[in-house]
Fold each of these.
Amino acid sequence: MKLAVLGSGSRGNATLLGSGGRWILVDAGFSGKQVEERLDTLDVPVNGVEGIVVTHEHVDHTRGIGVLARRYGIPLYMTPGTREACAHLLKGTESVVEYRPGRSFRVAGLTVAPFLTVHDAVDPVAVTVSGPECGSRVGLAMDLGRPTAQIRHSLRDCHFLVLEANHDERLLREGPYPPTVQARIASSHGHLSNHAAAQFARELLHPGLAGIILAHLSQECNRPELARRVIRDALTTAGFRGYLGVARQDQPTDLMDLTRLRSANGSDQLTLF
Ligand SMILES: [Zn+2]
Ligand SMILES: [Zn+2]
């Protein structure tokens, strides 16, 4: 299975996953044109995308869904609540497939398992995506207010994680946001801080975890080096030797080959024990 984060942050989120030349997007929070351009830099044709799984209605996750669905006939996978909350983006001509949290479904040969998160949206979900042939399981968890037992359970045993590290607590306190916005971001229905992400990543650590990409970093209240350092420190002391990257707002990550990454990490062997 291959994965690239096309971009991540409060101005847009989209993640590409695929196997055997078949692709899906989880969220399309950039304009249709931006998504096309970012796919192009990775040599992935937009008409190779067989579905867009929408995690919740916030515009940084949905900006391009209507255009991409209409222009390329890409089906949108949404919960009924998210579909309703996205009505302003849809014209009724799109192909929409409704899914329910807790029930997995297949798109482009991949199995998507959605589960509810705690976030200030109608029906917010995070997902795991599994490639049946390669056996890789990826957890995509952004816009997590707080990691509940259910979220922990759903994300266990992933071989790769894209995990929110939204803000540094001190930068949030000293940043430009008014107290009400600060409180919303830091609340249990807002976003994970670097330290909360570090703690959560430690809880999810297991020998088969080959890599983590930190995502949804706040432009104002975080720094990529800072997020990486906080999480790297927490994971290194817990024995993690895998890949740790940071997704940027303005450019895609490399298209990562998870099967290769897992074997480079030796995690395939370790999972046998
Ligand atoms: Zn959100
Ligand atoms: Zn978001």
Amino acid sequence: MRLFATSDLHSDYKENFNWLKQLSDTAYRDDALIVAGDVSDRLEIVRETLLLLRAKFRHVLFTPGNHELWVRGEPFDSIEKLKRILDLCEELDVTTRPLRLDDVWVVPLFSWYDGVFDSEKDERTARLSWVDFHVCKWPEDAAPLPDYFLRMNEPHLKTYDAPVVTFSHFIPRSDIFPPKEYLRFSWLESVSLCAGLDHQIRTLKSHTHVCGHTHTTFDLVIDGVRYIQNAVRYPRERTETSVPIKQI
Ligand SMILES: [Fe+2]
Ligand SMILES: [Fe+2]
């Protein structure tokens, strides 16, 4: 069984959905796919996309990104939306909890970004323009958000009887980011970094961690752990060398 990774499918873009549709219907029947968040904010598109992937792969493992937790005109908050997404995954036999494959455990990790800004100006700009601040609705008991999400992982922080691969939507380390001048906007790290994740990754003795969210491609080793992002991204962001899934 091979293990593949992807993230940020954003399949509400027809081009992206069709790109995934083109994946072979037979080549991955014995394989597993990690989807590290950001399929869509619309439940019916999440359903359609996960169903498509379930038909191609033996196992699909998923953790929600920020887009899944947007609530626009829906009569519930983002934590209720999270529950609905997890219920949908259960219904579709998409795994959101640790799963043992042949010779590896794959452990999904919930996360949310720390939201620490370098300056008040950056924070003001982000609060005006970053969509999460307008369409995520949080109950009071979910604060602080990174702690709320990381606490959900605690039952799974244990010793496993095979090597461990972990994945999250958000980025676990500051040193994964390129210098600020190369970022889409200077405060990207403030809405992407969940620093508490790396402690959990190391507690689990994970050898490889897959993440998403920043729509950047990387595959690097830091202090003995391999960090990978293979984001599908928005159609306008893709390059000729983009691949929808990457074997790890
Ligand atoms: Fe994304
Ligand atoms: Fe994201």
